[in-house]
Structure formats: structure tokens, C-alpha cells
Amino acid sequence: MKGQAALAIHGGASAIRKLDYRRECSHLQALVERARDDLSRGATALDVATAVVSEMEASGLYVAGKGGSPNLAGDYELDAGLMDGKTRRGGAVAALQGFQSPIQVARLVMETTPHVLLVGEGAAAFARTCRAPEIDGDDWFTHAAGEEANYAPGAQLRGTVGCAVLDRHGNLAAATSSAGVFDKMPGRVGDSPLIGAGVWADDRVAISCTGQGELFILTASAAQIAFLVRSGRDLRTAAEAVLSEIRSRGGEGGLVAVDHEGNVEMPYNAEGMKRAALTRDGEIRIAVFDECVRS
Questions:
Q1: Which among 59, 90, 97, 237 would be 20 to 30 A from 178, CA to CA?
Q2: 225-258: per-residue pLDDT in tens?
Q3: Among residues 289, 192, 264, 200, which one has the least CA distance to residue 36?
Q4: Would you name the residues annotated as active-site residues?
């Protein structure tokens, strides 16, 4: 609905009740407030989605970007993808090493190449030609999953950040970024950079997913939600149907989604999901577990 902006962001569906997430909640609050102000000034959904995810990558608070954790070989392989609902164009990178903001490189893929996805050395070479900011050694990373790993030894910890946006012009966009599963195999790529699995945007809905990437890939989760909405399902029913399928296969995770009318959904079936939203009524919601703080 033109004139009424809305957005939803997430910092991953791997929250553990024993831990204190006040720092992350404060950061999510600040991100939503900044995005609200940008949207009120006419910023596009794509610009806001890119900026929010880029700031989450740079914060070091989440298992994406600066907060990434190494794979079993000790290397940091980062994934990101985004989609512009207005143009139906998308861009992505996977197993990217040596660069600070995978989502910014993903956008460059979309805007400056005929391709959608670049991986590994090819993605790094492209980022280098674009003069994307590089990482100065592995000490740059904060290992955001470290504390959660201490509380859940042996668990398959995951980390993803994402944003779904409806701007004042009625356009939708979504972006997702991740360092993947904690202690993943070298070369492993999850759903985050895959259009239709971890991210999607069209003229009706924008979606960013988080959770067990393999199952989100096998169920084409983001695209499936979009197709259900297009076939007449409301956003909540469509999102819950896909998460129910993930659950039926023994998986867990969550997602954030915004539709063209400004409806926002942030369902999850894990212990918790770091999340925040700006509703079409201007309300800001911040939550990690079932409780929701409103401001």
C-alpha cells in the first residue's frame, strides 16, 4: 500500500534462553529507527534492505560478516543474497573470503553483471575488481557464535541476518547474509544466498529466512511462501505452512516477511529468534523469545 512503509529484520534463529541478548535488542532497535527515518524520507526498499543487512554484518553481533565463525578448515566463507521486487532482479555471493560485506558485493553482482550468483574465488576476484572493502586478517572477526557454542556444545548452531522491506512507493525488497553453520564443511553453502530458498521479493511479498539451510533449500521456502501468497493465501498462513513443513522434516528456523499491504510476519519454530519490525502503523517491535517489547 503506497505511503505506508513497513519492514522486518532478524539476527538468526539460534537464540538460547540462558544468554542475555539486550545488546542485540538495542542494536535491532537502532537499526529499525534508522530505517524508519530513511523510509520516511523516501528511501527505496532495496537501499534500506542492503543498508540494514550491511550494518548487521559490520556489527559483529551476529553470525554474519564480522561476526562470522570459521569452517572446519579454519577459513571464513560468507554467503549473501538479495532480491529487488520491483525489477525481479537478484544478486548473490557464496563462499566469499576476504571481504567485509558480502551483501554489498551481492548487490554489485546484481547491478553490474549479467549473473545472479558468484562463488568462491570467482566471487572474490569480482569483489576485488569492484574495490570492495577487504578484511585485514582473521583477527577482524568477533566469533559471535562462540558464547552460544559454549552453552550448546555439539549443537548445529547457525547464524543468519536478514531484512524484508516495503517502501513508501509500494516496492518490496529482501536481503539475507550468513556465515553459515558453525564448524561447517569447507565449501558448504546454505540457503542464504539462494534466490527462492533463503531470500525472495516480488510485487506481493518480501522474505528472508534463517535456520537449517539444507531444509530451506529442499523446500524452496522463500519462493514457496511467495507462491502461496500469489495463489490467495494470507501472509501468516503461507509463512506458517512453510515452517510447518520444515518442522515435519525435523528442522527448525524462522523467517521475516512483509507483504504489499504492509503486513509483517516473523514466525519461528526454534527456541528463539532475534527479530524486530516496523509495522505500517509506525509501531516498533523487538523480541528474541515469545515476549515482545513494544516502543
A1: 237
A2: 999 999 999 999 999 999 999 999 999 999 999 9
A3: 264
A4: 160
- Does residue 131 fall inside a structural domain? yes
Does position 295 have pLDDT exceeding 70, yes or no? no
**Domain range for residue 104?**
6-290
Evaluate whether residue 231 is within a structural domain: yes
Looking at the 3D structure of the chain, how many domains does it have?
A: 1
Write down the pTM of the prediction. Answer: 0.94
Q: Which amino acid is at 65?
A: G
Residue 264, CB-side half-sphere exposure with 13 Å CA sphere: 24
Query: How far from each other are the two terminal CA atoms of the chain, in whole angstroms?
Result: 23
Does an H or E element contain 79, and which? strand 78-84
Question: What is the CATH classification number for the domain harbouring 104?
Answer: 3.60.20.30
Whole-number Å distance between alpha carbons of 291 and 155? 24
- What's the rounded mean pLDDT across residues 211-221? 96
For residue 49, CA distances in Å to 191, 199, 243 come to: 18, 12, 23
Q: How many CA atoms lie within 13 A of 288 on its CB side?
A: 16
Answer yes or no: are the C-beta atoms of 27 and 53 closer than 8 Å: no
Look up residue 97 and give its DSSP letter. -
Residue 1 falls inside a structural domain: no
